[in-house]
Amino acid sequence: MQLQVIQNKIYQVRGERIMLDFDLAELYQVETRVLKQAVRRNLDRFPQDFMFELTKEEYDNLTSQNVISSHGGRRYMPFAFTEQGVAMLSSVLNSQKAIEVNIAIIRAFVVLRQHLADYKDLKEAIAILEKEMNTKFKDINQALNYLLNKDQKEIDQANRKQIGYKRD
Question: Among positive and negative, which fits the CA dihedral 32, 108, 89, 63?
Fold first, then answer.
C-alpha cells in the first residue's frame, strides 16, 4: 500500500492528526457501517483520545476546504481516529487485511511525524541563520552609510560658518 495514499487521508482536527471512518473502511475494504458497528461493540477500547465523533462544523469545515469530498447524505457524523485509535482498530476488525493495512497506516503516521520533526529542525536552523544574517547586514549597512555620507560630511564641514578668531 502506498504511503502517499494513506498520508493524503490524514487530516488535522482539534490539534490531532486523525483518519476518518469512511477512509479507513475504504482502506480495510469493508463498508463504513461494518467498521462503525465493530467500533460501537467495543467502545471501551476507544477512549476520547483514540476516537471521537466529528461535529457538524468540523465536518463542514473539512468539506468546505475541499480536504475531503462530500460522501453523499450523512445521517451520522464520521468517527475520527487518532494514531492510537487506528492501532486499536486492528484488534477490533481482526482480519489479515486489517493487520496489513494497520501496519501501513502506522508507518505513514511515523513518516509524517519524522517530516514534522525535520521541518521543525529546519525552521530553527533558518531562524538562527536569519538572525546572524540580520546582524551582519546591519553592520554592512552601517559601513555603507558611513562611506556614502563621508564625503557629504567633509563638504558640510568645509562649508560651515567659522567661529572664533579670524586671521587676516
Answer: negative
For cell 572664533, name the residue. Answer: 164
**Which of 24, 8, 14 has its CA nearest to residue 59?**
14
Question: Contact, 18 vs 42, CB < 8 A?
Answer: no
In terms of Cα–Cα distance, which of 77, 75, 100 is closest to 13? 77
**Cell numbers at 135, concatenated:** 546582524
- Integer Cα distance of 151 and 155 in angstroms: 6
Per residue in 126-156, pLDDT (tens digit) is 888 888 888 878 888 888 888 878 777 778 7
Tell me the per-residue pLDDT of 99-129, one tens digit each, with 9 for 90 and over: 777 778 888 878 877 877 777 778 888 888 8
Residue with cell 477490533: 92
